From TrEMBL, chain A:
Keywords: Membrane, Transmembrane, Transmembrane helix, Transport. It comes from Kibdelosporangium persicum. This is Binding-protein-dependent transport systems inner membrane component. It is a multi-pass membrane protein. The lineage of its organism: Bacteria, Bacillati, Actinomycetota, Actinomycetes, Pseudonocardiales. It comes from the Bacteria.
TrEMBL record, chain B:
The lineage of its organism: Bacteria, Bacillati, Actinomycetota, Actinomycetes, Pseudonocardiales. InterPro entries: AAA+_ATPase, ABC_transporter-like_ATP-bd, ABC_transporter-like_CS, CBS_dom, CBS_dom_sf, P-loop_NTPase. Residues 2-237 form the ABC transporter domain. This is L-proline glycine betaine ABC transport system permease protein ProV. Coiled coil: none annotated. Belongs to the ABC transporter superfamily. Residues 299-361 form the CBS domain. SMART domains: AAA. Pfam families: ABC_tran, CBS. PANTHER family: OSMOPROTECTANT IMPORT ATP-BINDING PROTEIN OSMV (PTHR43117:SF4). Keywords: ATP-binding, CBS domain, Nucleotide-binding, Transport.
UniProtKB/TrEMBL annotation, chain C:
Pfam families: BPD_transp_1 (PF00528). The keyword rRNA-binding does not apply. Keywords: Membrane, Transmembrane, Transmembrane helix, Transport. This is L-proline glycine betaine ABC transport system permease protein ProW. It comes from Kibdelosporangium persicum. It comes from the Bacteria. The keyword Nucleus does not apply. PANTHER family: GLYCINE BETAINE/L-PROLINE TRANSPORT SYSTEM PERMEASE PROTEIN PROW (PTHR30177), OSMOPROTECTANT IMPORT PERMEASE PROTEIN OSMW (PTHR30177:SF4). It is a multi-pass membrane protein. Belongs to the binding-protein-dependent transport system permease family. Residues 15-197 form the ABC transmembrane type-1 domain. Gene3D superfamilies: MetI-like.
Length: 239, 364, 218
């Protein structure tokens, strides 16, 4: 248990809390990598998932993209860095590959799960397809889309740790440096910070899901799936 | 024989589901528990196989307290059929039917052979044994449920609204099938339903329950319909019970009218003014000659209008009313036990007869 | 791909390590999550504790878990036991709620029928409830297997030998072949075991296929 004592000693040392290699800076860096990759993933996966979900065609694509989960992230990252050189681009690319499957699966199944009679009713009232998608299907699909977002964000956050292995920053820096320098206090301290950040982000995302979903519930009495969806479920449902 | 002695079921929240039930189900009969929802009929049934434990009182089977048997073993000795059939989705129809024999330690081949035999007994083709429950219709599933309950040849069969979930036509098939089976098997059957028609159709004895788990009346269907014990039973049995009651009235005192008859094959030359009943040489009714028909020469079957149902003397008045209402001549044809013409009867006469039976007239 | 033919023995050896590290946790996870799922389904209080805890465990990044376990367990950082335990934790986190939900989804009339026919509780669980949960279990196991096979490679950062070691070696000497071979191998292993589980699930649940056929016909 002395390891944890040392880790906390490292953690609370004043020099960890300032400067470009302090904990606050590394947290921001880490969140930055995560946000960039998730946003790019959203830009790609959201429209594709919406179109496939709405048309009902191309469901196989979701299954195919799902296979990306089987690609070992460390290998992909190292390969991209060797090909492109050290930098933000290869890291971001590798993380986007990770973010896309849950986002696509969440969007697709969210849209598919919308009660078809609601869609038919909208069509019957003369709504155009694009409007049906944006005004009817999307709001109803929100819980599952947010579930996908939550899964993607947490996976990207976890994996962004290994960016440090290819000489980038982020919270992995403490872990990797500690391992190199045989400074286990630093490694363990770093993992504690990562765990805290992951749990805090998870909490925030749950809160976001609750807020959006309950407001949606008042607006959309047709919704059948009114509970928040957890990443674990997205993973199982879209397997 | 199943005896309920002062059996009470009270839930922890104080609700009394069954209140001091005293009742004896005779061996080899179909006894129906009937009543509105929440009357304790299902609870009473489920206490027999200890799916629900009685709070107080005793249930005896052939004089033996059911609490002396371990529930699992007790249950293997009783067939149980429920509304949704409760078939195991993951087992083939054959293996579903073989469940209890297998549980009781039969070897697999023997249990399956028995199951195949039972599928036939309940009127299903043997090939169906290879299917899964999801591939059967509701009526077929229910037959499998009955076969499964019969698999270990238990002397007692408990049936909890077994036919309520299927459509009326299939339900009637299943009811007939059950009556036919019972003719062969002679089980002690307790049958729960909320449908009084089903109860009087199937039951040899009917126990009417009221809310709060009180037994309101226990007797033959005819007794329950003719002499309802109280307002509740009268109300539950329903307004049209006068008509239901007909099935149980002896009609020895029925008086019949005569109508003009003609013999098939006898030469005739006339135009008939009123309905003429045509008989064959043995005196069996063949049909009616409608008014305005001209007959020239020997009388053939060709101009005849088929008659309605026939009413055999000595059977229930319901048949007499049916005969009168279904006859084209508005008069029901009454025949004797050999099917020979006796006379005719009008619906009015049947109704008068019913009113002559004060018990059959509804108070409401 | 000359590299592969020259190093085939080493690659096979690493593949063996990789499979042991990735798949033992699937087995352990299954064995642990069935009783836990049963408990969660049986008692609401247990569920209210187990399900959120599973969620939290699933949230913790793998590298973090690999590194926090050694001081907790008194193991060395490069022991593969840490990785096996961490992946077992993920597998349990993934499966426990699925098992509970699958058990809760067994129709009450099927349970009632089993009771009425004289099933005792243990036999009912293994003869009726668990078989009916198989489709859900297989779905969970497939996700766990694919993710375990992929996550195992991260342990290379700690120096635990398995196919991921080819990434770190390849990085050090800038050997593309080594890295590509490992990526493809890991990907294929994941796909093969996913397929095997899918197949096993189909073979175990002919009734589910019959149900799907009926559903499709309607």
């Amino acid at each position: 248990m002395n390891s944890f004592g040392n880790a906390f000693a490292w953690l609370f040392a004043p020099e960890q809390w300032s400067g470009p290699s302090g904990i606050p800076a590394r947290v921001l860096e880490h969140l930055g990598y995560t946000a960039l990759a998730v946003l790019l993933g959203l830009v790609i996966a959201l429209p594709i998932g919406m179109v496939i979900g709405h048309s009902g065609k191309g469901g196989f694509l979701v299954g195919a993209v799902n296979a990306l989960r089987a690609i070992p992230e460390l290998g992909l990252l190292i390969l991209l860095v060797l090909l492109m050189g050290i930098g933000l681009l290869p890291v971001t690319l590798a993380l986007v590959v990770l973010a896309i499957p849950p986002l696509l699966a969440g969007t697709y199944s969210g849209i598919r799960n919308v009660d078809r009679s609601v869609v038919d009713a909208a069509r019957g009232m003369g709504m155009k397809e694009g409007r049906i998608l944006m005004r009817v299907e999307l709001p109803n699909a929100l819980p599952l889309i947010l579930g996908g977002l939550r899964a993607a964000t947490l996976q990207v956050l976890a994996t962004a740790t290994i960016a440090a292995y290819v000489s980038l920053g982020g919270l992995g820096r403490f872990v990797i440096d500690g391992l190199y320098l045989r400074d286990f206090a630093q490694t363990l301290g770093g993992t504690i910070v990562i765990a805290v950040v992951a749990l805090a982000l998870e909490g925030l995302l749950i809160l976001l899901q609750r807020l959006v979903v309950s407001r949606g519930l008042r607006r959309n009495p047709t919704r059948r799936r009114d509970r928040t969806v957890r990443p674990v479920e997205i993973a199982v449902e879209t397997a | 024989m199943i005896e309920f002695r002062d059996v009470t079921k009270q839930y922890p929240d104080g609700t009394v589901a069954v209140d001091k039930l005293n009742l004896t189900v005779e061996a080899g009969t179909i006894t129906v528990f009937v009543g509105p929802s929440g009357c304790g009929k299902t609870t009473s049934l489920r206490m027999v196989n200890r799916m629900i434990e009685a709070t107080s009182g005793t249930i005896l089977i052939d004089g033996k307290d059911i609490r002396d048997s371990e529930p699992a073993l007790l249950r293997r000795g009783m067939g149980y059929v429920i509304q949704q059939a409760g078939l195991f989705p993951h087992r083939t129809v054959l293996d579903n039917v073989a469940t209890v024999p297998l549980l009781s330690g039969w070897d697999k081949r023997k249990a399956r052979a028995r199951a195949a035999e039972l599928l036939e007994t309940v009127g299903l083709p043997a090939e169906m044994g290879r299917r899964y429950p999801v591939q059967l219709s509701g009526g077929q599933q229910q037959r499998v449920g009955v076969a499964r309950a019969l698999a270990a040849d238990p002397p007692i069969l408990l049936m909890d609204e077994p036919f309520s979930a299927v459509d009326p036509v299939v339900r009637e098939d299943l009811q007939n099938e059950l009556l036919r089976l019972q003719g062969e098997l002679d089980k002690t059957i307790v049958f729960v339903t909320h449908d009084i028609d089903e109860a009087v159709r199937i039951g040899e004895k009917v126990a009417v329950f009221r809310k709060g788990g009180v037994l309101a009346q226990y007797g033959t269907p005819a007794d329950v319909l003719r002499y309802p014990a109280d307002e509740f039973v009268a109300g539950f049995v329903g307004r049209d019970r006068g008509y239901r009651g007909l099935s149980f009235l002896e009609s020895s005192g029925i008086s019949v009218d005569r109508v003009e008859t003609a013999k098939l094959g006898k030469p005739r030359a006339e135009t008939v003014a009123d309905w003429v009943l045509v008989l064959d040489s043995d005196g069996h009714p063949c049909g009616w000659l409608p008014p305005g028909t001209s007959v020239d020469g020997s009388l053939t079957r060709e101009p005849l209008v088929a008659g309605g149902s026939l009413y055999t003397t000595g059977t229930s008045l319901r048949g007499a009313l049916d005969a009168a209402l279904s006859s084209p001549a508005s008069r029901g044809v009454v025949v004797d036990e050999d099917g020979k013409y006796v006379g005719v009867i009008t619906a009015r006469q049947v109704l008068d007869l019913i009113e002559g039976h004060p018990q059959a007239v509804s108070k409401t | 791909m000359n590299w592969l033919s020259r190093n085939i023995d080493a690659v096979l050896e690493l593949t063996g390590y990789h499979l042991v590290i990735a798949l033992l946790p699937v087995l352990f996870g299954l064995v642990i999550s069935i009783p836990l799922g049963w408990v969660a389904n049986r008692w609401p209080v247990a569920r209210a504790i187990l399900v959120p805890v599973a969620g939290i465990m699933y949230t913790i990044p793998s590298l973090v878990l690999f590194l926090i376990l050694p001081p907790l367990l008194g193991t060395r950082v490069l022991d593969e036991i840490n990785v096996i335990i961490a992946l077992t934790i993920y597998t349990v986190a993934l499966l426990v709620r699925s098992v509970a939900d699958a058990l809760a989804a067994v129709p009450p009339h099927v349970i009632a029928a089993a009771d009425a026919m004289g099933y005792r509780p243990v036999r009912r669980f293994f003869g009726v409830e668990l078989p009916l949960a198989v489709p859900v279990l297989v779905a969970g196991l497939r996700v766990a297997t694919v993710s375990n096979i992929s996550l195992t490679s991260v342990a290379a950062i700690l120096g635990v030998p398995q196919l991921g070691s080819l990434f770190t070696d390849g990085f050090a000497v800038e050997n593309y072949d080594e890295i590509v071979v490992a990526i493809i191998l890991i990907f294929l292993l994941a796909m093969v075991f996913d397929g095997l589980l899918l197949l096993a699930g189909r073979l175990l649940t002919p009734w589910a296929r019959a149900g799907r056929a009926v559903g499709a016909a309607k």
